[in-house]
Design goal:
The structure holds two protein chains of two kinds.
Chain A (H helix, E strand, L loop, with lengths): L2 H23 L12 H41 L5 H21 L20 H4 L7 H10 L17 H10 L12 H4 L8 H39 L11 H12 L1 H11 L26 H17 L11 H7 L3 H19 L5 H7 L1 H19 L1 H6 L13
Chain B lengths: L1 H12 L1 E2 L2 H23 L2 H7 L18 H20 L3 H16 L8 H15 L8 H5 L7 E2 L1 H21 L2 H4 L5 H4 L18 H21 L4 H18 L5 H8 L8 H6 L14 H22 L1 H4 L3 H4 L14 E13 L3 E7 L7 H7 L3 H17 L3 E13 L5 E2 L48
Antiparallel strand pairs in B: 1-2, 3-4, 3-5, 5-6
The chains are: A mainly alpha, B alpha+beta.
Amino acid sequence: MDRSLTRQIMAMAVTMTTATLVVSTTQGCVPDQAPPPPGEAERQAFAIQLVDGFVVPRLDRLQTQADALVDATTALAAGGGADAGARIAAREALASMLVTWQQLEVMQLGPAGVSSTFTGGLGLRDGIDSWPQVSPCGADQQVVQNLFGEPGWAAGRLVNVLGTHTLEYLLFRDDVDNACPAAAAINDAGTWAALSPAEIVSRRAIYARVVAEDVAAKVGTLASAWSGGFAEQLKAAGTAGSVFPTAQQALDESYAALFFLELKTKDRKLAVPAGLHIDCAADVCPELTESPFARLSRSHIEQNLRGARQVFVGENDDGTDGTGLDDLLRNAGHADAATTMVAAVDGAIAAVATFDGTIEDALVTEPQRVRDLHTAVKGFTDELKGTLPSLLGLRVPDEGAGDND
Amino acid sequence: MTARWMRLVAWLSRPTDPAGLAAFRFLYGTLVALGSARFLDAGWPEKLYGTPTFFFRFAGLSWVPAVDGDSARACYLAFVVLGIGIATGTLYRLCIGAFVLLFTFIQLGDVTNYLNHYWLVILLGVLLTVVPAHAVWSVDAWLLGARRPTVPFAAVAVLRCQVAVVYVFAAVAKAGSDWLVYGQPLGVWLPPRSALPFIGPLLTMPLVPLLLSWGGFVYDATIVPLLLWRRSRPFAYALVIVFHGLTRAFFDIGMFPFIMVTATTLFFDPSWPRRLLGGVTPIPTASSSPTKGGQLMSAAVVLWCAVQVALPLRTFIGSNDVLWDETGMRFSWRVMVREKSGSLSYRVTFTDDDVGRRTVLVSPHDWLTWRQVNEMIGQPDLILQLAHAIRDDFYRRGFHDVEVRADCRVTLNGRPASVFINPDTDLAREVDCLFCRPAWVMPRPTSTPPSPWRSTSPATAPRPEQP
């Protein structure tokens, strides 16, 4: 090889390297005014739909409902917890709020999510609802300690004695027993037994008010995080300045959030109490349902599925149609897959919505019905894990650890 | 035979300028150092080795201890230092040997971390351990007397052979209908990259995945002869840069493009660095008569190359459907040719002394990280490994007569999801088979992948009724 040939190679190499480096490293540097390419445009439309049509309206509603819950628990506490009407009002306020919350559960990305998985993750979800990390016994220990009135009390507590599930326990437990084993300090030392029934009811009501205030504040923090910048960042995915360099990344993270249905709704809320998981040491475990005190487990599952459907089909809060994952599938030429997936989620919703009675009761009388429910939900989650990522090129963000080839 | 053999020995033994080899040593060491620094910067040692609680092991090598996050971090820090040592040729044999051993050790930690380019790094590293790549332009040559004016051509030839094997079998892997007829999996992977500047909008055009599939196939099939032929070499190397630059833009394949752009310099004339730097007369490459040592060296080269050819070919012994059943998938240079995703849950039936016979479901997410789940879900041997781990766990819990079955549906290159593992097979009783297709892997679905160039018109696609 003579010198001119060598130099020729190097000249071409330098030229081509420069050209390819420009292509491979300037991702996200397209000028703002340039229209996004077709695929990117519809992903951006999905991100906008997700923010304006799903998350933000629900956060607004959640804030209103959380404030109403504070009012209701304040009234309950003011009456020493003994006013049956105030208790019913507080329970209804919590149940209303949980309808909205359970829909949002399937889209806990951004500030609600954890930073290791989600862009902009602040881990705010667990402060509002830490399920399945909940501790009724821990809550009863707090009742004995009776320190809720101290400033900053909630800030120093673990999430498993705060949040909506602790509220459920405090508002829906009708007796004055506690959830701790006999060997626990409050039973062993007799500190629980030393409390009068009226004192227990009163303390639980005050505790509920404090937790409701904490939940409302954390809902406010979550809503502020969205309105304070994250919503705009997500809507601007794929444009200069957004923390999402591509709209595909926003889509990937939305997809990751939907795994709540697989990991929590199917595997925890249904499989565990139905005796399909080793965490249940018996044939069935009604005590391990999500909502053993309010017995709202069926409703929670239904709202999870409805939330997932609304994200999937891009349904706006007012019921009108927007851009959903189904549209992305159709526009990519996979109308059949879109139809199959919508049918699967509709089938799961129908199975839950038409479920007669509570899951807690059915586990005792006809556990197979709950297992059938599990199968119905699995029908959708299997599609979610199999077909969808393959056809839309979706990646779970945590997959980003390491390279591929 | 003897005459041919002696001609081969003579060809491999002819004295050759070590400059090209030294340049490759420098580039390889630099990539080792930079790649490891990048790995550390991304926090991957912790994510890949510190976070998982279960590690998949290579067959027969489960005795190799898995490393934890801190140890992995220490290893990658060591790679940075060793890479600098390799690049500068300082205590070269020690550095390259230690790097190869340590890098191989850490790669044995978890099968889900397997990448083709890690395998290539190991193979090239093994060869660099043997060949005198520090003969010139190294600290060893300067200070420790390692300088040699020439090296046998075999030192270059065996490395060229190694790189050629990668390209040839990458082409073989692409010679299938998914790639060449349906343009898959590029049809799945490229449209989401539409945000790329300049070329992004092109990627949403229906024919582009198919055209790029053919481009990739033709590139892999022809690049070696094009690089070997002196007249086409400039054009070929430009192609190398464009091809690997584009793969870098399209996919998260880390250092692979850089490794290949570096490794293909081995096809240049061995004196290319001297000519590039100018002024120094190339060393004459007079042939030498074959010696016993030369014959031994040539035999080693032939044996190495034969093994490297045979290893990917084992795919065809056990299966004719490697993309689906993965028999012989690893170490066969099937780079980026399949997209798999799916769902998996294990059904475990056992006897509980307190409850009786019962069946529970076990999610792989209970055992694995997201990344591990995504990697293992389409790989039968890993599905089997986890089944065995679950079986052993249930026995440890005091249960009896444990049976483990898998409900697994997988999509391949955009096809509708199909049952992947026979749901009736008790995996607890099955053993891994190294060179054969497991009988419990279901047949590949007869459906074809979606055709990107025959997309359904959005306007005519049916929509479901809103409830």
